[in-house]
Amino acid sequence: METIIRESERALVHRRPYLLRMITELRAIVYLLPFLIPFAIFYLWPVGRGAWMSLHVWGIQGMQKYVGLANYKKIFTDQDFYLYVWHSFYFVIICAPTVIVLGLILALLINQNIKFRTVIRSMFFLPYVLSVSVISFIWLRLLDSKYGPINALLKLVGLPGEIHWLTDKNFAWWAITLTTDWWTVGFVMVLFLAGLQEIPTDHYEAAKIDGAGAWKQFWHITLPGLSRVMRIQVFYQIISCLKLFGQVQIMTGGGPGDSTNTMIRYIYVTGFKKDMFGLASAQSIVFCAIMLLIAVIQFKLTDRKD
Questions:
Q1: Which residue intervals of 40-131 are DSSP H helices?
Q2: I want to staple 269 with a disulfide (CB 3.0 to 4.6 A). Which of 108, 216, 273, 304 is the partner?
Q3: Mean pLDDT lowest for which of 78-82, 187-191, 202-206, 247-251?
Q4: Helix axes 169-198, 117-129, angle to 10 degrees
Q5: pLDDT (tens digit, 9 = 90+) per residue, 250-280?
Q6: CA 46 to chain centre
Q7: Residue 207 in 3-state DSSP?
Q8: How many Å apart are CA 176 and CA 57, to the nearest integer?
């Protein structure tokens, strides 16, 4: 009898760590529920619903019929799809580097001991607080070919002042890039400024003693010190530029012609203009997969560098 009791006590002792782990895990899940429930409602459910819709012919009246992968086949046989994907990546190529470089330059300038530093930083950051609609309407007026102040300023300095910024395909993308850079450069600047303030000043003092000039200090101390912030900026700017919609919709409407039409606007037109929500859902899934692939590649490259 005593042997049986001892064996049962030993079994209970061995089971206790497992029970404690189970209780701890359940407790952790309970603490995560305030996050998991909204995440499931506002993220997982829409994604699942979109994937289901992409397998159907779906209009404003709801589901009409199941078509399987027909919507996906239609996407990859549509030449416009490849054109608009290229437009989206073209915007990444011209916008992401310019806003990162401008943000870094501003951060380097403001990081110096200058007067009204806080005021200048707030002035550059203020546009980022505004919505894309407000920013787009502001620049729509500034870039007006007849009455816009930018063309008037060009005339004043003796340059051609009849530039059709938004209706000439040679200038439309640069107008959208200028608008986006002005809108987001303050955010980029603040992140770089935070990174600059984390670099120990001892490194710069030691470099000065060794006779390093400003350029060598920037190249060997500042840039390596900002490497992590730089990777975050590159990742964020690529994804943000790929999601371009508001500026194009308000300022050019995808024109002139289709020269500024992007993938996001292509999805919008397919769904809300052509009443083809099933096809638009398939386009969204494909474009989301493209962005996910880019994110995975960037994370892999980041891990290698680390």
A1: 45-53, 70-76, 79-110, 117-129
A2: 273
A3: 202-206
A4: 130
A5: 999 998 989 999 999 999 999 999 999 999 9
A6: 20
A7: helix
A8: 34
- By CB neighbour count within 10 A (0-12 exposed, 13-18 middle, 19+ buried), where does 195 fall? buried
Give the integer Cα–Cα distance in Å for 239 and 241. 6
Question: Of 97, 53, 94, whose CA–CA distance to 71 is shortest?
Answer: 53
Of the chain, the end-to-end C-alpha distance in Å amounts to: 61
117-142 pLDDT per residue, tens? 888 888 999 999 999 999 999 999 99
For residue 234, which of 33, 80, 54, 100 has the smallest C-alpha distance?
100
Residue 86 structure tokens: 């290229």
H or E element that contains 176: helix 169-198
Contact between 41 and 249 under an 8 Å Cβ cutoff? The reply is: no
Integer Cα distance of 43 and 37 in angstroms: 10
Of 81, 251, 267, 236, the C-alpha closest to 174 is 251
The owner of tokens 């002792």 is 13
CA pair distance 168, 88, nearest whole angstrom: 18
